[in-house]
Structure prediction request, 138 residues.
Amino acid sequence: MTNRAYLVEDYRGFHIASFVLAVGGWAALYYLVSTVVPSPGPRWLFFVAGLMAVTGSVGPFVWYLNRRFARRPAPAGVLLRQSLWVGLFTATCAWLQLARTLNAPTALLLAGGLAGIEWFLRLRERARWVPGEDDEPA
Prediction:
């Protein structure tokens, strides 16, 4: 019998971080949209709050998709990074829309580039050898 303790992962911290990011981000967005004049300083705060709100809101969906389709449970740091990619994508699209330069090919290229970066990072994580992790007797 092998020790498969690495398969059991505790995601409570990830869920708490997602909740705090979502609530804080959406509250900041509501405050900025309803009370602040859109000058350059609050405009950048809008992008930061949007990044926080989307990252926190997408976290549970990323956790579910990784739980449903991944071969092994992903660490909480990987789930947070994947949620952050989605938040970065939406904040970048909002920034591009501000200058009226966002179109479908630009959004698809941006999404493909971010997905490619994540794919290469996951490939690197899988290729890294950790002593004792997969050392099972034959």
Summary: The chain has four helices and no strands. The chain has one domain: 11-127. The mean pLDDT is 89.
